[in-house]
Design a protein that fits this description.
Blueprint: E1 2-3, E2 6-7, H1 8-25, H2 34-39, H3 54-76, H4 85-99, H5 104-114, H6 125-140
Antiparallel strand pairs: 1-2
């Protein structure tokens, strides 16, 4: 993807390479490196609240980042708002894990139960993928040492 003479795909590839190097040397944490972890699965997380990882800021800068986000929204006719019900449920489980009221196995169990039904009785395909991916991340990624 090119946007105003900038090869966004190349910049994203550079972000992935940098992330892979960081993961190999220092490891990544779910709490502080979510954008980077997702990039390793070719997911480019774009948020409108400017919560970019510092490495993303270096490669994209604020202006380009916002233009990419707006371009994707226009191209994909995105009208979804977040957090949706599934996201809120995932946030609650994550908060319980962080507070220590449940362990990682319990969190994974709760999250996987969401893959079947949520509060309104259904999950769409994307929400199911999000739930399963979150359970895998919770189970397999190291947490920040506190």
């Amino acid at each position: 993807m090119r946007l105003d003479d900038v090869d966004v795909s190349q910049r994203f590839f550079e972000l992935q390479q940098s992330t892979f190097g960081d993961a190999s040397v220092d490891g990544l944490s779910l709490e502080s490196d979510a954008h980077m972890i997702l990039s390793l699965s070719s997911i480019f997380l774009l948020q409108k609240n400017n919560r970019m990882h510092p490495e993303m800021m270096q490669l994209f800068g604020n202006k380009l980042y916002h233009r990419v986000r707006h371009q994707f929204q226009a191209d994909l006719s995105m009208t979804m708002t977040f957090p949706n019900t599934a996201m809120l449920d995932l946030f609650k489980v994550t908060e319980n894990l962080i507070s220590g009221s449940i362990d990682r196995i319990g969190a994974c169990s709760q999250v996987l139960c969401m893959a079947h039904l949520n509060a309104d009785g259904h999950l769409d395909f994307i929400d199911k993928k999000l739930v399963v991916t979150t359970s895998q991340l919770l189970l397999n990624l190291p947490l920040d040492s506190a």
